[in-house]
Design goal:
single chain, alpha/beta, 7-stranded parallel sheet, about 45% helix, globular
Length: about 240
């Protein structure tokens, strides 16, 4: 059982891309703070391994949702199922993302472009669309999405990924503006250089030990997930 301070005690939190990297680190940290986790990822085995870790922390199983987020109708089905089971959602963390290929803009394969946009932008829009009614049912709904430096500062060869993160930033800030008079708050976190599989893919040959581990950014996610957080439309930089 956890002996943490329980800053998320009783809160229901959904995390996408939960099976590894930043998503898995968020899930474990949220568990230590008392949240009930709804974990979404494509790989069932990896989710089950993560659930074993969470049960060691909390003594209770997470809710596992093996799903490809580009199967957009399944997002709606998940929203309906969560409404039936819980009646609300307190925290939504849109973490799942694809890097695509790093290449000149004109050389990106159209299928790769579409895949990156589907996961990084459209899936998060579908999550907002499906989870908004549940977040509004919370006394303090919190939506958190993962930004990137290349989404705000143009950098050659980052192509679809950079464009998708710029779109995600504007989408989140627009949603935040719409939520201003409600109890829902929406923000972004830029984790900066972090030791993940995506980072290794983007920076082959980099010494992984020179990059901070995912666990180092989880405190910021907890802060934005707390019911007392009053930020809205912000981008919190963890670089």
């Amino acid at each position: 059982m956890t002996d943490a301070s329980g800053r998320l005690e009783g809160r229901i939190a959904l995390v996408t891309g939960a099976s590894r990297g930043i998503g898995a680190a968020i899930a474990k940290r949220f568990a230590t703070e008392g949240a009930h986790l709804i974990l979404v990822a494509r790989t069932t085995g990896a989710l089950e391994e993560l659930d074993d870790d969470i049960q060691k922390i909390t003594g209770e199983p997470a809710t596992l949702v093996p799903m490809d987020l580009t199967d957009f109708d399944q997002i709606d089905h998940m929203g309906a199922a969560l409404h039936e089971r819980f009646g609300r959602l307190d925290v939504l963390v849109g973490n799942a993302a694809l890097l695509g290929t790093l290449s000149p803009m004109g050389h990106v394969d159209p299928k790769v472009w579409d895949q990156v946009m589907a996961v990084n932008v459209t899936a998060n829009w579908r999550l907002i669309r499906s989870m908004d009614p549940l977040l509004r049912q919370s006394e303090a709904g919190r939506a958190i999405f993962v930004a990137s430096t290349v989404g705000a500062e143009a950098r050659a060869y980052w192509a679809a990924y950079a464009v998708s993160k710029a779109a995600l930033e504007m989408m989140t800030r627009t949603y935040a503006a719409e939520m201003e008079t409600t109890s829902v708050r929406a923000n972004l976190i830029n984790p900066g250089a972090t030791r993940t599989g995506m980072r290794a893919q983007a920076m082959p040959g980099e010494d992984a030990a020179s990059v901070k581990p995912p666990e180092d950014v989880t405190e910021t996610f907890v802060q934005l997930a707390e019911s007392t957080c009053d930020l809205n439309g912000a981008i919190v930089d963890c670089r």
